[in-house]
Amino acid sequence: MLKILSIVGARPQFVKASVLRRAFDASDDFHELLLHTGQHYDVKMSDIFFEELDIRKPDIRLRVRGGSHGAMTGKMLEEIEAQLLENRPDACLVYGDTNSTLAGALAASKLHIPVIHIEAGLRSLNKRMPEEINRVLTDHASELLFSPTVSGVTNLKNEGITRNVFAVGDIMYDATLASLPKARAIKEIQGIDLRKSPLAACTIHRAENTDTYEALSKIMDWLNAQCDDYNVVLPLHPRTKNALVDYGLSTGRITTIEPIGYYEMQALLAASEMVFTDSGGLQKEAYFHGKPCVTLRDETEWVELIEAGWNRLWSKNYVTPRTAVEEYGNGQSAALILDTIRKTITG
Ligand code: UD1
CB of 97 closer than 6 A to ligand 1? Predict the structure, then answer.
């Protein structure tokens, strides 16, 4: 039995963890312990995902919430280390680029517990993004690196990381495919009739877009201009909601709603004609649903979507014509990941 301690903390990680936790549970040679750091704690940012995605409850729950990046990451580091010492897993698995990811990778690597990084190799090359720092450091502390893209493998190579790097497709595609039956049954979200076109799904939560009045008001103005053509539906992330209140900014003609669950988001994407977002995950999910996307940032990690004409940065034009992005795989990434862990990590 290989004992894996997986770490989650923020919304996009619950979606990815749902796929792998199911695969670990279905196998007879893995024992997975799931640790939730507490980074996202609102019911609508956390619990709802565990319930609706039917994720077996975390085995370990920390209560690290809010605070500055240093304080949050430091507290997680200390508490995760204690859990690793107590549970002595054969490997520690982390997802993506959040503060929970970095804390897990640092704690485990210092205890010589191999780190498995899901979604390795992504780069925005913008070191002012906390996520960029988190992902670079996590990759360099990792023993086994799973990249969803070929460009991710190249990025790692450029930084001298070539050992135990595997392109396995995107685990979020596994999740989207599994969600379709439930998502298709949803016809209304918080009073919005999904059959009434033209809808545009929108999310904003990046620090670079919310942490100054200038940045957020520029985004609000831009989105309001899109309301000439679309009913722009924006489920508000707590960070963005607080920033709007603090700056006294109006959302104007944008339809704002409470954060929505995973299936509701898939349903909103399927019903929309366009997607506006600063989220990494949503850029890909737009593509999985065959929808064009405008990324509300000056760079993106998902460069293949730009090259394939499905995505554009808000300051640039689309590349045409649109082509398929083969490297995201066929929805079987979880199986590939488990097989590779079996071959690489010895208990
Ligand atoms: C984090 C991740 C980001 C990921 C995103 C998904 C980092 C550095 N960033 O950003 O990579 O894409 O999650 O949503 O880890 N808050 C609440 N309720 C909650 C969660 C957060 O009120 O349930 C508040 C926090 O207290 C904080 C703010 O929202 O004031 C931002 O939360 P935080 O966890 O710092 O980062 P995210 O913007 O969510």
Answer: yes
Contacts of 242 by beta carbon, 8 Å cutoff, 6+ apart: none
**Rounded to the nearest whole angstrom, what is the distance from the C-alpha of residue 241 to the centroid of ligand 1?**
12
Mean model confidence pLDDT for the chain: 97
Q: Is residue 102 within 8 Å of residue 138, measured between CB atoms?
A: yes
> How confident is the model at residue 92, as a pLDDT?
98
Most informative mutation of 239, 245, 262 for ligand 1 (most atoms within 8 A of CB): 239
From ligand 1's centre to the CA of 69, what distance in Å?
A: 10
99 C-beta closer than 6 A to ligand 1? yes
**Is 117 touching ligand 1 by the criterion CB < 6 Å?**
no
Tell the residue number behind the tokens 């906390």, with chain if given.
Answer: 130
pLDDT tens across 258-292, in order?
999 999 999 999 999 999 999 999 999 999 999 99
**Beta-carbon neighbour count of residue 288 at 10 Å?**
21
**Closest to 138 in 3D by CA, of 104, 110, 102, 94:** 102
Reply yes or no on whether the pLDDT at 320 is more than 90.
no
Residue nearest to atom 25 of ligand 1 (CA): 66
What predicted TM-score, i.e. pTM, was given to this entire model? 0.95
Residue 209 Cβ contacting ligand 1 at under 6 Å: no
Amino acid 25: pLDDT: 97
Q: Give the pair of three-digit tokens for residue 77.
A: 């580091």
Ligand 1: centre distance to CA 345 (Å) = 32
pLDDT in tens, 165-200: 999 999 999 999 999 999 999 999 999 999 998 999
Strand ranges (DSSP E) for 102-175?
A: 115-118, 144-147, 165-167
Residue positions annotated with a catalytic role:
205
Distance of CA 11 to the CA centre of its chain: 7
Three-state DSSP class for residue 340: helix
